[in-house]
Amino acid sequence: MKSLTISDVAKAAGVSKTTLSRFLNGNYSHMSEATRQRIAQVVADLNYRPNRQAQALKSKHSHLLGIVVADMSNMYSTQLITGISRLARQEGYQLMMMSSDNSEAIEHDNLNRLLDQSVDGIIMQPTQRDSASYDFLMSQVPLVLVDRQTEPLTWPTVSSDNYFSTKQLATLIKQAEYQHIVVVSEPIHEVTTREQRFNGIQAVTNEFGLSLDLVEVHDSNPEVLHSDLLAYTTQKTAIVALNGRTLSLVLKMLIRNHVLIPDTVGVCGYDDWNWTELVGPGITSIEQDPTQIGVTAAELLLQEIRNGKQAIQNVVLPAELKNRHSL
Question: Does residue 2 carry a pLDDT above 60?
């Protein structure tokens, strides 16, 4: 059976090849809703699948978006990709997803592989703080960063309101009459997100004279964390975990060692996928929305792909503090 051509489909839909091509490329400007729906119905009825390689050669667009996350096993990454995919699918783009495993070398290799595939744009959760690490991308492809900023601000970035939300959390801890806060995090100064969250807590402890300690996690063994935290339980203490992974590690350690929450120690932190209400008494947490971060990042990237270089902006989305029963 002869393969359908774009001319065949355009004739069946009663439109020009140019109009059909614009539809297939997700460009609906100057196209009525009735025309758009008619074309969509004809394409579905004929089960027409355009040759993307041929389209790419003609339009100089591959309709591929690259995604590079720091750690694919992290639930944050899963929800982030869900948001990006939701919009990309609507707009006719396919995704190429890669994980850097928190390695600068792997990340650099991933980015070069995406460039080799002629992606139209990249959304990246960077492993490095220095914008100069990504200068090689400047003239090659549109780039939007998520979750973590680079310094100085060089590309559009979408993240949660890390500073304000943790400042709110620390204020809640103070109101619960805790004398001491212990922050548990992966190395703070490697990632701007962690630093912003720590700074939000520190602003409150400085203002009200609370004591503050930092335990940086270099090992996923909860017993190592237990020995690190034992020294910090002589006062009324609240533990704050700065991301979902470290919060999970803290809770695992406390449960294994039969530490009562909040009778012996208060616990709270960041929750990336709304699981903290199911644990123990219900864990007080900051819930961000990685899915919406992904949607917003995809919107910014597609704007730049279609309209050229856009103003650099740092889009900060609100995070919600859920006060439960762990403080």
Answer: no
227 backbone φψ class: left, alpha, beta (φ>0; ψ -120 to 50) = alpha
Could you give the CA distance from residue 165 to residue 285 in angstroms, rounded to a whole number?
10
Domains of the chain: 6-50 (1.10.260.40), 64-159+291-318 (3.40.50.2300), 162-288 (3.40.50.2300)
CB-CB contact of 261 with 326 (8 Å) = yes
Beta strand ranges found along the chain (DSSP E): 64-69, 94-99, 121-124, 143-146, 157-160, 180-185, 211-216, 237-241, 266-271, 284-287, 314-317, 320-322
Q: Which residues 6+ apart lie within 8 Å of 296 measured at CB?
A: 83, 158, 315, 317
Give the pTM: 0.80
In sequence order, the β-bridge partners of residue 68 are: 98, 124
Q: Which two tokens stand for residue 24?
A: 């297939």
* Per-state percent for the chain, helix, strand, coil, to nearest 5: 45, 20, 35
Greater model confidence, 143 or 17? 143
Which H/E stretch holds residue 105? helix 104-116
Q: Cα angle vertex 132, ends 126, 137, to 5°?
A: 70
CA separation for the pair 223, 221 (Å, rounded): 6
Q: From residue 220, how far is each of 84, 186, 252 by CA, in Å?
A: 29, 10, 11
24-58 pLDDT, tens digit each: 777 787 889 899 999 989 988 888 876 554 554 44
What 3 state SS string does 6-44 have?
HHHHHHHHCCCHHHHHHHHCCCCCCCCHHHHHHHHHHHH
